[in-house]
Amino acid sequence: MAENPIQPIHQFQITNYFTFGTIGGDGTDGSGIEIAFTNSALFMLLVVGLISSFLVFSTRGRGLVPGRLQLVSEMVYEFVADMVRSSAGSEGMRFFPFVFSLFTFILIANLFGMFPYFFTVTSHIVITATLALMVFLTVVIYGFMRNGLGFLKLFVPTGIPWYVMWLVVPIEFISFLSRPVSHSLRLFGNMLAGHIVLKVFGGMVVGLASIGFLGVLGSVLPLAMAVALTGLEFLVAGLQAFVFAVLTCVYINDAIHPGH
Amino acid sequence: MEADAAKLIGAGIACIGMGGAGVGVGVIFGSYLSGALRNPAAAASQFGNLIFGFAVTEALGIFSLVIAFLLLYAI
Questions:
Q1: Interface residue ranges in chain B relative to chain A, Cβ cutoff 8 Å
Q2: A23 to each of A31, A35, A127, how far by Cα in Å?
Q3: What are φ and ψ of residue A26, in 5° steps?
Q4: Burial environment of residue B64 by CB neighbours within 10 A (0 to 12, 13 to 18, 19 or more)
Q5: Could you give the CA distance from residue A108 to residue A50 in angstroms, rounded to a whole number?
Q6: What is the pLDDT of residues A186-231, one digit of tens each?
Q7: Which listed site, A32, A62, A100, B70, has its alpha carbon 20 to 30 Å from B32?
Q8: Which of chain A's residues have a Cβ under 8 Å away from the Cβ of B59?
């Protein structure tokens, strides 16, 4: 593997641009937690800056008849608002800013990663796990705040006979606990796998073309596949942002209406 | 057998699990299409359920991918 010049995993390397310092550790190299400004942080700042400046700039005119840019902002707003309203009810609209921020951040971060040499923020599990834990803790804390102990009705489905309760309740509880795991792994796995597949097909083009004339002819096939996969990856980038936001709405709906 | 070889074989075996997720995703979209063609008026309202079922099923395939990566890089 080491002699292969094309490393599909290399694109996920985190590099420090400058280091602020180290927390803990005993002074030796590699001990303690390093606090640094990395390429991941840079691209997160770029994503947030792009979203904020676009939304502020496009709605600056506040036209009654929207221009093109303002129309885009209003479409995104309406899209997320419809999603929250339909799956979490009108009471869920108090979480609209949260869902909107999650959706736009993940969407733009996924699309940013599609540019060559750009870093894909969402292909690191530390980012997606943070986002998913944020949603999970929001659901748990708000659920207990709003319903008190009635939130535990979430684990007791109505309309089932009492003698299967001992089986159903633990299953419901475990499936509730596995939510942040699947929520974060889905986004992470999709982005990671998609980018690795793109690089593998790109590597096949180079590898085939380097063995001679016949190889150049043969490399047309993986090249076509790489182009098709790039289109598929754009679809996946949008779909995964949508799925993450929809699942957030569904989980928030559980916090608001815990009875099944 | 060398441990490295066993890791690679294990990662390959773990990927078989994705076949199950493939069957599940196919069943979900196939059922949605057949339902939508019978009653197109109700199709749009069920799109959210479609995506939810797809996401839950797909997560299981992603789990097997994660097991493969754990075997390759984390052990």
A1: 48, 51-52, 54-56, 58-59, 62-63, 65-66, 69
A2: 9, 7, 21
A3: -115, 25
A4: buried
A5: 9
A6: 999 889 888 888 888 888 888 888 888 888 888 888 899 889 999 9
A7: A100
A8: 182, 185-186
> How many domains is chain A built from?
1
Distance (Å, whole) CA B59 – CA A99: 21
> What is the residue whose two structure tokens read 């990566």?
B69
Q: Is residue A224 part of a domain?
A: yes
- CATH class of the domain whose range is B3-74: mainly alpha
A143-178 confidence digits (pLDDT tens): 999 988 888 888 888 888 888 888 889 998 998 998
Altogether, the residues listed in chain A come to a count of: 260
Q: Residue ranges of the domains in chain B?
A: 3-74
Residue A11 within a domain: no
- Note whether B48 contacts A242, CB cutoff 8 Å: no
Side-chain-side CA neighbours of A185 within 13 Å: the count stands at 19
**Separation of alpha carbons A175 and A173, rounded Å:** 5
**DSSP symbol at A258:** -
Say which amino acid occupies A157.
P
- The answer as to whether A12 is a domain residue is no
Domain hosting A221: range is: 34-256
Domain annotation covers residue A1: no
What is the Cα–Cα distance from A205 to A215, expressed in whole angstroms? Answer: 9
